[in-house]
Design goal:
The chain has helices spanning 3-23, 28-33, 130-139, 146-157, 171-184, and strands at residues 26-27, 37-43, 48-58, 64-68, 72-75, 84-86, 90-94, 99-108, 121-127, 191-195, 207-218, 222-229, 235-246, 249-258, 266-273, 276-284. By secondary structure, the chain is of the alpha+beta class. A hairpin with a 2-residue loop joins β15 (266-273) and β16.
Length: 285
């Protein structure tokens, strides 16, 4: 047999072995239901990141291969407190009659509810389905910070704005927002919305800043001014006065707009050259 054939055959055998090994794993819910394992899932008192403590015991005389799925929604028995969406898959080989304990990586998927209380016992719940389950699969094994993941979960679970997933120039987060916009069938926002952090409140809903960039071109020299107006044309903020000289070129202007006391609604960034409106770009709070 030729060397290339040997290598191909070896590769196929390795792939088949890997697939067979993967097939050993069964859902944690299935194994709990049939009595193969005992499970206790306790809150650590948080709602983002390693906020769930899993304790398991193998009740059988053979190894149990436990699959904890990304996209499983743990059910909080306290109706006013948050369920937790797991976004990182775990596969655990649990030897006969062995016990194990580990933290699971999960996030609140009910922003208007209270944070889970320490040692609350979660029920195993079910797969979240829909966009939440898709998001968990997308995030699994990628290195997003906990703030980004939490905001992304709330976009799907609580209908928060996609702009709340602050991307800046981070290509990984930009890719996440693009994928989420496609799932939502909406236009990708050009801006980020930042919110106030309030102690003991998962989401304050208090916007503080809008950041982003506006790009425009000028074929001739002139003087630039940029301002922000609300839906009825009221002047809200001056970005730059008409004292900045431009020359024929393409420009990108960074924006950092304080919006702390602004009401919800639609606003426009207005770019003027020599007093003439050159570009209008909108954002929504």
């Amino acid at each position: 047999m030729k060397l290339t054939h040997i290598l191909i055959a070896a590769g196929c055998m390795a792939a088949a072995h890997s697939a067979h090994a993967s097939e050993k794993y069964r859902s944690i819910a299935e194994l709990q239901e049939n009595g193969s394992i005992s499970v206790q899932i306790l809150s650590t008192g948080g709602y983002s990141g390693n906020c769930v403590n899993l304790q398991m015991k193998n009740n059988r005389s053979d190894t149990q291969f436990v699959w904890i799925e990304a996209g499983r929604r743990l059910d909080n028995p306290v109706e006013t407190d948050q369920d937790i969406l797991l976004v990182r898959e775990e596969k655990i080989a649990l030897p006969p009659f062995a016990k194990t304990q580990r933290l699971l990586f999960g996030f609140c998927c009910q922003a208007s509810n209270g944070a889970p209380k320490t040692d609350t016992t979660f029920r195993i719940g079910s797969m979240a389905g829909g966009n939440l389950e898709w998001l968990a699969g997308f995030i699994d094994h990628k290195k997003y910070d906990t703030y980004t993941i939490q905001q992304a979960v709330w976009v799907f679970s609580d209908n928060h704005q996609l702009a709340s997933v602050v991307a800046g120039r981070d290509p990984l987060i930009i890719d996440l927002r693009k994928a989420m916009a496609k799932k939502l069938n909406i236009t990708l926002p050009w801006y980020d919305i930042q919110y106030r952090t309030v102690d003991n409140t998962p989401f304050s809903g208090q916007h503080t800043r809008v950041t982003g960039e506006i790009e425009f071109s000028s074929a001739s020299a002139g003087f630039l001014s940029i301002n922000i107006r609300n839906e009825v044309g009221m002047l809200m903020h001056v970005v730059t006065e008409e004292e900045n000289a431009l020359y024929g070129s393409t420009y990108t202007v960074p924006l950092n707009i304080p919006v702390e006391h602004w009401g919800k609604g639609r606003y426009s960034v207005n770019v003027y050259i020599d007093g003439n409106l050159k570009k209008k770009q909108e954002f929504v709070l």
